[in-house]
Amino acid sequence: MTTASRIGLPLLALLLLAPLLGIGAYPLHLMIMAMLWGFIYTSWALMGRLGMVSLGHGAFFGVGAYVVVMLWNHFGMPPLAGTIVAVLASALLAFLIGYPCFRFRIVGHYFALVTLALAEVVRLSIVGLRDLTGGSLGVTPSPGIASGETASIYALQFSERVVWFYIVLVMWLLSLYVWRRVDRSMTRLALQAISEEEDAAASIGINVSRSKLGVAMLSAIMTSIGGVLYAQYQLYINPETVSGIAISLQIVFGAIAGGMFVTLGPTVGAVFLLLLSESLRVLVGNQVHGLDMLIYGALLIFFIIYMPKGILGTWLDWWARRSG
Amino acid sequence: MLEIRNLNAGYGSFQALFDVSLKVDAGESVAVIGPNGAGKTTLLRVISRLIEVGSGELAMEGRRYNDIAPHEVVSLGIAQVPEGRRLFPRLTVEDNLMMGGFTPAARRHHRERLDFVYSLFPRMKERRLQMAGTMSGGEQQMCAIGRALMSKPKLLLLDEPSAGLAPVIVQSIFELMKRIRAEGYTVLIVEQNIQQVLQVVDRGYLLETGRIRMGGASEELLASDEIRKAYLGV
Amino acid sequence: MEFFDIFLLEAIVNGLLLGGLLALLALGLNLVFGVIDVIWICYAELIMVGMYAIWWMYSVQGAPLWLAFVFGVAIVALLGAALHQFIVRPVLTAEPINQLLVTGGVLFFLQAAATVVFGIEFRNIGIRLPGVNVGELHLSMARLIAFGVALASIVVTYLFLTRTYTGTAIRAISQDREIMPLMGVNASRIYLLTSALGGALAGLAACLLVLQYDIHPAIGLSFGPIAFLICVLGGLGNLVGGFLAAFIFAQFISVGGFVFHLEWGYVLAFLFFIVMMFWKPQGLFARRY
Asked: What architecture does CATH give domain B1-75+187-234?
């Protein structure tokens, strides 16, 4: 671990000082995106690494984004308060789906498909409520910054990118911390045993359902907060990009590409996906629609077949074997 | 007909058979007896090519077949009734039999073989449209044997046909063995039920912890002190 | 008949017609899952490729429609076989979830490939089938044909599975894979055949859909999830269950969409699904076929 800290801490310091070192707006934006998606993918991986592969995190992401924006646009509720509502809604959703799933031992394919149903329900509901949500056209949070100002905590809108940088940085670090806590607690050990041998663990008296449910709700809450941040930063959301099967699969891919069994894995995945889409945009431009998806899909296939532990996971394995 | 020379085989790093050699001539009935875990089932699986040969030779009618694909073994004329019957539970009796006669060569004689199996097992004819999984143990065993016979095998392998069956049924199974033998089939039976099996075969081999300890005519084996003391409680 | 009743009746009948089509979708998926134990998340995308193939052959190449249909079915059957051989096979021994994810990658890949090759404009083969009056009901000819063909295909598939050697082997392998070699059956070959069959059924669905809907790279997203849910509802791998579940689901979509508004029919159906998961988690008709 010391090697990691020796490299990690200076890098972290660098990261903390980055905006002040005069990095341009675009790289700053990229870093924000990397950390934001890193936060979201890590939240997903909380469940994923314990065998609960959800194909429906788009539901929580979408709920986070839309609840906050809707409450602000229609009722003037400040996003910070709206976040609490969104978080409660996501937690409830996670509970409603999670409880029967874990209690009735719905696992594997079935679980994945049930979560997929959830993501689609959310997407379709958003589209269906088009009078409120603007349907497929999407929606923008109403401007909340007073003229002459650059920020509004009340509206959770900041025109200074640097502010967002630090907000997202804190959230990202928080997600890594949460990851570590879940990882180290008894829960994780129990769940590890559980994901492999459900009946044996239950006989040790561990409340299987409660542990799984806890992690699921935590994962859902964090993902929905990610949705809030995304909405407030990008200032535009639509149902296809924040909910449904497409974004759900993207989250899964991101976490897996980096390696969901390692703390920084999902973040590596986020960086990877970001670099991929940006470099494709630079190389190919916007003329050829779909080329990025093409490579993205091919890479997902490649990763699952040849590097199921993800980039970071495989690299760490290789490193361990070299020194072992 | 079947010849096995110096066979070594196992599962991954775990070796189960050591330098096993045996043979079965045309028209013979041969038993491989031995205690639990001796490697008897492994032996049959190797013969059917479900498990790879480590070293040694498998030959059928003089032709070495170590390298053929598992699904080609039936075409050589070797059919197996696996341990535990292993019928397809949600297929009918008739469909199970159909699967036994799947190979193109067997399909040509489907009607004829089906009639033969039904004549051997009239009860199977009664139950031909019944789901195989709903039958009793003894009936399932009949069906499993019938299934193997559908391909008109030259060599019939039976893996513990009496396992898990009530004594009365076991009795009828061994009667059946005599009948199959009388029909001229060449049979290799693997069994834990030493007393009964040696009464229906010509020869036997004793397999213990993966090694052939002895072999000979069934009367010899029944009379041997070693076997009587260790296995027949005498 | 009262005005209100007629439209409700129409909704019910349309639900039946839709059910037939959805049952066809479920059949292909269930077959592959029941036999090979893999869910093709990209199943709807296979159908999308079939639709483009038909459009290309008919609208671009000017071939007769029947030829375009044959071409479509053949292309998707090949695609299904290729999917199994090159993408699924390498991960058959890995975690089941990897199999789901690898087909997820194919989903993106196929969508993107369609976008690159055909662009994002909506395409249509431009065949407008007339409406048909059955009694006082006004129904779409396209839907009636789709229903008929779907049912016929299901019957043919059923006969294939129960009356032929290969079909019986396909059913057998899903019950006990290990002893298949003892029957003289090449298991890999059966898997490949099943994949091709699953693809062919998808291709058939494409033929039926192309008569009713526009083609777009992302249309898979509209009916893919539905197909999965139907399969789970009927019990994954359960061919009969999937058949019945398709009709139940279709009624929710059709009548729900009629009583409320279009999307809500789908939402209702999905919610029904989620509720069912609470009540009968293994699917309404749990036992595998």
From this structure: 3-Layer(aba) Sandwich (3.40)
